[in-house]
Amino acid sequence: MEGDSGMTVRVGIIGDRGRMGAMLRRRLEEAGHDTGGADLPLDAEALSRACKNAEVVFLCVPAAVLEETAHKAAPHMPESCALADITSVKMLPVRAMERAWSGPVVGTHPLFGPKTVSERYAVTVTPGRGWKEGEALPEQDAGAVRLVEELFASLGWSSFRCSPETHDRAMASIQGLNYITSLAYFAMLSRKPELLPFLTPSFERRKEAARTMLTSDSAMFAGIFAANPMSQEAVREFRSYLNVAAGGDIEVLAELAKGWFPE
């Protein structure tokens, strides 16, 4: 059976019972691709079934256990198979996959969650082997990168390439700072119960917007923050803007912030 794009790819999903892994496997099957899956316990039999005849194997596991999982999966993968991941950080996972697998390696990061409903589903694709923007793809990974991009296109997802370093620097600001500044803000306010009578509708909206991130998803976001080598650099940069506020130059910040809200 072929997907809407006319291509059929055999894909292994390691971590296919997790939220993102389950979503990815379901979407691939809906598009007509052939999938195999494995989840805990990752024994040899389960991995062999998941990786059998695979053209690409996706590691849908947390960054903290990605290298261990890659080493477990590698002996069961066909020689020409590509190894990919979907973690929210890329520098350390791409290097870990390169250590575990001598074949093609492709980092990816879907910029949406398993329940996201959107008109735009974008995925970053981060080639390894020290690749930088503007360079030719590493010969070892070029075919695999294009295969993964075509696979995402068959799901109706757009993709764009960037280096692991560019990705992690961007996500440290977009994802990491969003988490850590909200965490620090609400942690500070939690020690001020005398503020409760003063809560406003705008505060309540911010609290509700942060609820899932700071409760059920907090461990996940904390892990992402810790695994991103660019996190502390982003925190230091943000602190410099707080210093501007502490110095009273609010108008400077207000003018800069307006750039997000063009008229």
Could you describe the 3D structure shown?
With 263 residues, this protein is an alpha/beta fold. It has two domains: 10-162, NAD(P)-binding Rossmann-like Domain (Rossmann fold); 165-260. Helix content is 48%, strand content 13%. It has ten helices and seven strands. The protein has helices at residues 19-30, 44-51, 66-73, 91-100, 142-154, 164-189, 201-214, 218-227, 231-246, 250-257; strands at 10-14, 34-38, 56-59, 82-85, 105-110, 122-127, 158-161. It has a seven-stranded mixed β-sheet with strand order 2-1-3-4-5-6-7, sandwiched between helices. Helix 4 (91-100) links the parallel strand 4 and strand 5. Helix 6 (164-189) packs across helix 8 and helix 6 (164-189) crosses helix 9 (231-246). The longest helix is centred in the C-terminal third of the chain and has 26 residues, at 164-189. The mean pLDDT is 94.
What are the SSEs and their pairings?
Elements (H helix, E strand, L loop, with lengths): L9 E5 L4 H12 L3 E5 L5 H8 L4 E4 L6 H8 L8 E4 L5 H10 L4 E6 L11 E6 L14 H13 L3 E4 L2 H26 L11 H14 L3 H10 L3 H16 L3 H8 L6
Parallel strand pairs: 1-2, 1-3, 3-4, 4-5, 6-7
Antiparallel strand pairs: 5-6
Helix pairs in contact: 3-4, 6-7, 6-8, 6-9
